Amino acid sequence: MVSSFIPLQGLVTGGKMKKGDAPFSKQSSACLGTNMPRQFHKVTLSEVEEEKQILAEKVYASALKEEDNKDALSMFTVPEDCPIGLQQAKNHELLKDLAEQQSEESSKRRKSFKLIRSQSLSLQIPGTTDCPDLGTFTSLMSASSTLSSVLENCPDFQRVSISGDYCAGIPVEDYEQAAKSLFNALLIREKYSKLAYHRFCRTTSQFLRSAENTKWDEEDEVLPDMCPCPAEGEDPYSEENIPEHLNYQLKMKDGIVHVYDSAEALRKDQPYDLPYPDLETFAIDLNQVLAMIADGPTKTYCHRRLNFLSSKFYLHEMLNEMAELKELKSVPHRDFYNVRKVDTHIHAAACMSQKHLLTFIQKTYKTDADRLVLEKDGQKMTLQQVFHSLNMDIYDLTVDSLDVHAGRQTFHRFDKFNSKYNPVGASELRELFLKTDNDINGEYFAQIIKEVAHDLEESKYQHAEPRLSIYGCSPDEWENLSKWFIQHKLHSPNMRWMIQVPRIYDIFKSKKLVPNFAKILENIFLPLFEASVNPQKHKELHIFLKYVSGFDSVDDESKHSNHMFSFRSPKPEQWATDDNPPYSYYLFYMYANIMVLNNLRKELGLSTFQFRPHCGEAGSITHLVSAFLTADNISHGLNLKKSPVLQYLYYLAQVPIAMSPLSNNSLFLEYSKNPLKEFLHKGLCVSLSTDDPMQFHYTKEPLMEEYAIAAQLWKLSTCDVCEIARNSVLQSGLSHQEKKCFLGANYLKEGHEGNNIHRTNVAQIRMAYRHETLCNELSFIVDAVHSEAINSH
């Protein structure tokens, strides 16, 4: 492609980040490369086992049936298997173990594993040396020289280890089968993460390369690009240095926006060389993981490993708690109160407390009672008239009569919960105070958010990522939202913005606002592509997108869908029925467009976006499988408790999970049954978030309230809550520069090397324990892959 624009200096081409480069480059004019090596590798049905596809469809159908028939109140309280089934499984495993002991082949395999496990310590830290040639056994010991250099600065603490020739605790054949399945699932997530510029755990990536006998290279690591926070004195709304027009052509095809060099290229259907995903490949990859979560040996293996992780942390805490506390006490000017915390899951329309909203309404009434604020039935009304029409006296209004707080009456009633967004049950007040597009251009809502932002700036150490809605029923939504943002000057150094897309196509279709599902996708994503390639035409949107860190998919997950997602699902242009598409369908098309958009923006030197959907709060377990492939991180994740395979996969890949126990307590799960403490102890990457302070919290600092209640109820230590806070910064949409400032210059490194205790107040002992434990779990998978290669050799 010939272009008059100069490529961005230091532009990361081919999707790779060079050593020493900051993950975000300043925006300027740039052109797309002609040959992009990053492509979406397509898979056809002939390349995979048909049996797996059939099994996966059975799992999906079973999940849908369970979702349709189950009693909501029994969630998380009934064991998955009945006692008879458990006894039969135990007997079957015992017989299998006895048969294995008498098998000569199994005996050879055990000896092979014994040799490999004897070198497990050196295998647990791969990546900096060439991986061993599996042709000989002796070469497996080649990583030992690396170990001493890595462990040189490792903190000294009491470690828990298991010795012996075979540590998996299940028959060899089952172990091999489970490890191979887990290995393939991690490769699938890595593929989808890297293509979309989502993060993938560095340690896990190193072990995957080790298993493939290739060298892990830091230059191959892919990271999201976030726009740095403007420097002090710099205008965050400046229109200077906006890139020139590129005049590319855009067209939505099969629900995904395609980019073309010119009208001629569009006519010939020759899109740019960007990675365009396809539904069939995604469905096949999804089915591989679906089939895996129903596999007996894999479930047994993952269940045992998770139990081991829980027990191991209990022993670690018992042995090292005082040593961790001693470390923290020796750190000057740093404690839980002044470490950075990010509320990574909070909705803008409920980001204030109920008391804050009440005070604001009363204060506004005093100054604006005679102001025309609303048009109803063709008649303009003053604020005073609005309240009179509701038969309300503003001075009699209390927190109780405001009635925005969720309680026992909202448990498993998402419809009642949504009605809590209407103060005193009046949609007029929601329209007036909690909307961006109304007769006063969202002025009151903007003022409330600015007050919340001011409180965050006053606290200094708390940040938030409020979610604003884009519905997809009109292409003008983006322009209106960006104008609102700039007009009211809503930028804050303590806020990043997320865009939430409600899954309510069925409502828009029933009202004849859209002809098909493709129109919603077009209204959501086409304006973003246009603002990326022609920013001069969309200056306000271009500026607003600098401060948007990602997208969320929201709605009631427990809503049932009659359609079973598969490669046979209709394309978005063909989805013209009144039925709502299933969760996986929404996630794929959101991910697909975000992936193409991120690759385009990366090539142009612009910021990228994360995909961070609500997932696992309720509904089918298949939601978590879809998110495992497509999401950078998720919100809630409660249903991971129901699937040991998925829970273990989320641990191995270190998928971040923003959990909101107070929110769950009012909607889906009692606080005492929330799995956050269990997930934290096992080593999953969890953080605490508020979700909706207006509905669930009482104080002026809802995030601190969330931490305080969790710490009190579960007896979390200072190190525990600081670890959760550190996780929140890592999974947030803050820029690379901000994370370096808040976590330390080496935060991208794993374990104690990536932790600056003077910034995070997390003990080096804790970080070393987490890293070594993850390495140990990953080494089991690598051992199985190596053993298989040795045996075949």
Report what the structure shows:
Strand 8, helix 21 (583-603) and strand 9 form a beta-alpha-beta unit. 48% of the residues lie in helices and 8% in strands. The model is unreliable at 1-35, 69-81 and 122-150 (pLDDT under 50). It is built from 31 helices and 13 strands. The relative contact order is 0.15. It has a domain at 45-216 and 773-792. It starts with 49 loop residues before the first helix and ends with a helix. The strands form 4 sheets. It has a 5-stranded parallel beta sheet, sandwiched between helices. With 793 residues, it is α/β, with parallel strands linked by helices. Helix 6 (172-195) packs across helix 31 (764-792). Pfam families: AMP_deaminase (PF19326). Its cofactor is Zn(2+).
Shape: globular
Report the span from N to C terminus. Answer: 47 Å
Largest sheet: 5 strands, parallel
Structural class: alpha/beta
Strand residues, percent: 5-15%
Round the mean pLDDT to the nearest integer and report it: 83
- The number of helical elements comes to 31
Q: Strand sequence of the main sheet, in spatial order?
A: 3-6-7-8-9
Residue windows where pLDDT falls under 50 for at least 5 positions: 1-35, 69-81, 122-150
Rg from alpha-carbon coordinates: 27 Å
Number of strands: 13
How much helix is in the residues?
A: 40-55%
Pathway: Purine metabolism; IMP biosynthesis via salvage pathway; IMP from AMP: step 1/1
Function: AMP deaminase plays a critical role in energy metabolism. Catalyzes the deamination of AMP to IMP and plays an important role in the purine nucleotide cycle.
InterPro entries: A/AMP_deam_AS (IPR006650), AMPD (IPR006329), Metal_Hydrolase (IPR032466)
Protein name: AMP deaminase
